[in-house]
Amino acid sequence: MRRPPRPPSEGVLTRGLWAYVLGVGALICVLCLAVALLLYRAEDPSWRTALFTTLTFAQMAHVLAIRSRRETLLRRGIFTNRPLLLAVAATLLLQLAVVYAPRCRGSSAPFP
């Protein structure tokens, strides 16, 4: 609220945001593909689960890291946005439940 509003003619993805989006997307993509490829080549049947879990954790780490364009997560503080922190914690717990809780896995889960 301290900054003046952006001009109505200005696009959403401007000011170097395209490069940031592509860079972070490429980083998460490489990380996920590396995990999936390592497990797939090792003939681990849970490579899809590991891929999805890696993607989930990477997205949660990213959402915590991008809260400010000017300050780092450590400088801004992890606990300054409690609803976001609660949402991230709930997402991580639900992801772990889907992977490890027998009732949440369903019939086609890769783990015995």
Concise synopsis of the structure shown:
The protein is mainly alpha-helical. It has five helices and no strands.
Beta-strand proportion: under 5%
User: Roughly how many Å apart are the termini?
Assistant: 53 Å
Overall morphology: extended
Spans of at least 5 consecutive residues whose pLDDT stays below 50 are none
Q: What fraction, in percent, of the residue positions are helical?
A: 55-70%
Structure annotation, total helices: 5
Q: Mind describing the biggest β-sheet? A: none
Mean pLDDT: 85
- Secondary-structure element series: HHHHH
Could you walk me through the main structural features you see in this protein, from its secondary elements to its overall organization?
The protein is 63% helix and 0% strand. It has 112 residues and is mainly alpha-helical.
Helix and strand topology:
Elements: H1 17-41, H2 47-65, H3 73-76, H4 82-100, H5 102-105
Quick tags:
112 residues, mainly alpha, 5 helices
